[in-house]
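User: I'm writing a tutorial on reading structure tokens. Could you give me a worked example: one chain, its sequence, then its tokens, then a sentence or two explaining what the tokens reveal?
Assistant: Sure. Here is the example chain.
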Amino acid sequence: MDILIKGVRLPEGQVRDIFIEDGRIDEISAACTRKADRTVDGAGKVALPAFINGHTHAAMTLMRGYADDLPLKQWLEEKIWALEAKLTGEDIYWGTKLACLEMIRNGITVFNDMYWFWEDSARAVCDMGVRGFLSAVFIDMFDPKKAGEQIESNIELFRMAEKYRPNVVFSLGPHALYSVSKESLRWIAEFSRKHNLLVHMHLSESGDETLFCREKYGRSPVEFLEEQGLLSERFTGAHGCWLSADDAAILARTKASLINNPVSNLKLCVGRIFPYGLVHEHAIPYCFGTDGCSSNNHLDMMETIKLASLLAKFSTNDPTFLPARETFERATTEAGRIFALGTWEIEVGSSADIILIDLDRPEFVPNFDTYSDIVYAANGYVVDTVICMGRVVMEGRHVDGEEQIMERARRAARDLAAR
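And here are its predicted structure tokens:
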């Protein structure tokens, strides 16, 4: 379907028409005369590239508010893992659809996920018309039999994942080095290299993880993963709060990327915040993630990037650190590079993943700087229209089927908790 966005403002201030053809931006002009299958009124709105959510456990929307205000270890082992053991594919489907709905409403069209029941997640992503880099949780708990089962499962998922493209890209998701054996990590590294697959893993999230790795392997988590051949431009490590200077140098040398999850890290009290100064010094690529709704409660990228920018300034004692425009671009353009999505900008040739922000709101008055307003003043509720790969998935803040999604997800969550 061809789409014409009529009379929309660009971030630099010009008012333009944007013509979308075959899922890409084909023309940006002062007055487009081409006929489109659908016209979107851009008056009073600004067009921006959509947000990319770098780290999620999407179907954990079903656990929002279920086990709050607990220490990380107790939260994970006593509450979350116990509830997850009862999940079904149907639960995952509706929980993922709810996550996609929430992300659409917050201007997110792409997310990087790690969770159970891979194919049910994939169906939900396709049905919602967004994009997901989906990995099945790889956990073997150092059991060779379990490791073999996990390897077979991932090979099978990789083989059948093609039918879910272009909405879904299969990736590898080793949970963490305290839940995946050395042998499995080596297999993951080789399979990733052979098939050019993204590896999505929790990395240096807590002091306990770092201590575990040093006691078991005599290495920091980053040093250990480098020895297994896992670190490369295909690797995205979520969190990274406990990185050292030596770790940062290794990540830079191997071209690995990080995902900063400030809300989750603060709520679960992991002991440190993202090491902004180290990451900047070593020029390590990074973007932002919300994490799952059981540890964040919200899938709002604007909330996330505001907190990230403020923490960066506070931790470095530098009010110029991670300024508004850079913060926004890390959630969009830089994330696009990390996930190999091409040029993630409002320009001809780019993927038509576009959000229209409603400027007719108090948060945008007087609107001296659009990037500052988005990062420091707004939340996801200012997103009016969302286009993903040239398809309108929200207009006027309405998403088709949203009432049913919320009702079915609400029912699934209550049933899950009662099992």
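What the tokens reveal: The chain has a mean pLDDT of 97. The first strand starts at residue 3 and ends at 9.
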